Amino acid sequence: MTDRALSVVRAGALTTVQDRGRPGHAHLGVPRSGALDGPAAALANRLVGNGPEAAVLETTLDGCSLRPRSAVTVAVTGAPCRVTVDGRPAAWGAPVRVRAGSVLDVGPAVLGVRAYVAVSGGVAVEPVLGSRSTDLLSGLGPAPLTDGAVVPLGAPTGVHARVDVAPQAGPPSELVLRVSLGPRDDWFTTEAVRLFLSGVFRVSPASNRIGVRTTGPVLERARGEELPSEGMVLGAVQVPPAGTPVIFLADHPTTGGYPVIGVVRAEDLPAAAQARPGTAVRFVAVRGRGGC
Amino acid sequence: MRTLPVGPEALLVEVASGEEAQALHADLLRRRAEGSLTAREIVPAARTVLLDGLPDPARLAAELTSRPVPPLPPRADGTVEIPVRYDGPDLADVAAHWGVGEAEVARIHADAEFRVAFCGFAPGFGYLTGLPARYEVPRRSTPRTSVPAGSVALAGPYTGVYPRSSPGGWQLIGTTDVVLWDHTREPAALLSPGTRVRFVPVAPTGPVT
């Protein structure tokens, strides 16, 4: 086997391969998938000299440990965390050189949920429908990392960025999500729509790559009948029978039968994906293509 | 026809019937292929077509509502044939719903001409229409935790084939060995929206019980 590879020393709670996903196949029931915090993944790639299409690792809460079989440049972005190489502190949010056989440890997230680990050359698992992303809803792409697994790497293509530290938005203490009402806001009572736009919800621990589930005010429906299945978009706020909103993230189902009260701006979703359980969530209405 | 905005770059087009949704979907695909429509996703469903990744949803909405949907073009492409053993565990229940014998269920189902109305639930899972309305069946009151891959099943107005083993509440009437989804194949999905399908009965391999 080539020595362009990483050995997984500690896979962590959930570490997956992610790139920009596989949009364009929703009509076949294939979710778009891809890194939940796209800007953080893109920054990590830039820092190590990869193109924006390169696949990175997305960790969940407790990081991971990796041993490269050849010297590589890595960068850890997204959720702030302690980064070490062979136990010695290394930079977070900046290029780090790791020698063959050394152990890179991405520690537990101090804030936020998901850290991104880019490695020079990118993760080179076989693409499925044009993407290397793990899709946890439909099972496409590589399985989540396991201890002892070997992750293939591509050949480095660029020169890593000459920066000491790159500024990144910190994970939010309160999520304020811009939302356009509809398409099915008329399936809810006037009071429910008012509550949706004024109430405080909280991120539920049941959240995952499919969606941010919330707890809080129950949104009452004005129409009791079943909604025929219809296409769903990224950021759709679907309201299942329990009445608490679910914000669809990258692995969301392509069709669904619960009414969508509104759609969160795509630019606000990375922050939503970094919000820990218990974080307060508010939805503010915006119209048309406005917003900043 | 009614258009509903879905965030800043998508549009949900709602029509009166499943047939009209299929016709609209075919027309939108044709327009995208000829270059007069830009859309990243065109997702048909039961009564709607969702368009995502649009440069100007409001303009498209105005344009769509100002012109009639051309009827579905006559069949041009081939028909996918799916060999089925009508041996599903819910065959008797479906026969009771329809008021016919079990053998008659197979005959009625295999006589119908199906079309993939839309996909969803799992990659390669198509919702097929084509059975007369009187043959609609409810979902099972208790869904199964595991439905085997290749199960041919009914729910509401639809027929579906499970591409892989998964939980499911549809009524299982048969089994096929056809591979519905294989991502190493081109195309990966045997069935995509608009595909015409016939089910061809084959004898069960095991002893008939």
Kindly describe this structure.
The complex is a heterodimer of chains A (292) and B (209). In chain A, 9% of the residues lie in helices and 29% in strands. Chain A is mostly beta strands and 292 residues long. Chain A has a seven-stranded mixed β-barrel with strand order 12-19-16-17-14-13-20. A six-stranded antiparallel β-sheet of chain A has the order 7-6-9-4-1-11, with no helix packed on it. In chain A, 53% of the residues are buried. Chain B is α+β, with helices and mostly antiparallel strands and 209 residues long. Chain B has two domains: 2-65, Gyrase A, domain 2; 79-201, Cyclophilin-like (Cyclophilin, Beta Barrel), CATH 2.40.100. In chain B, strand 9 (151-155) and strand 10 form a beta hairpin. Chain B is elongated, with a radius of gyration of 18 Å. The model of chain B has no long low-confidence stretch (mean pLDDT 93). Chains A and B meet through strand 15 and strand 19 of A and strand 1, strand 3 and strand 4 of B.
Oligomer: heterodimer
Strand content of chain B: 25-35%
Low-confidence stretches of chain A: none
Strand ordering within the main sheet of chain B: 1-2-4-3
User: H/E element string of chain A?
Assistant: EEHEEEEEEEEEEHEEEEEEEHE
C-alpha termini separation of chain A: 49 Å
Can you lay out the helices and strands and say which pair or pack?
The complex is a heterodimer of chains A (292) and B (209).
Chain A: E1 5-10, E2 16-18, H1 38-48, E3 56-58, E4 64-68, E5 72-78, E6 81-85, E7 88-90, E8 96-98, E9 104-109, E10 115-119, E11 150-152, E12 174-181, H2 190-198, E13 201-203, E14 211-215, E15 230-231, E16 236-238, E17 246-248, E18 255-256, E19 260-264, H3 269-273, E20 280-285
Chain B: E1 2-6, E2 10-14, H1 18-34, E3 41-44, E4 48-52, H2 57-65, E5 79-84, H3 91-98, H4 102-111, E6 114-119, E7 126-129, E8 144-147, E9 151-155, E10 158-161, E11 166-168, E12 171-175, E13 196-201
Parallel strand pairs in B: 5-13
Antiparallel strand pairs in B: 1-2, 2-4, 3-4, 6-7, 6-13, 8-11, 9-10, 9-12
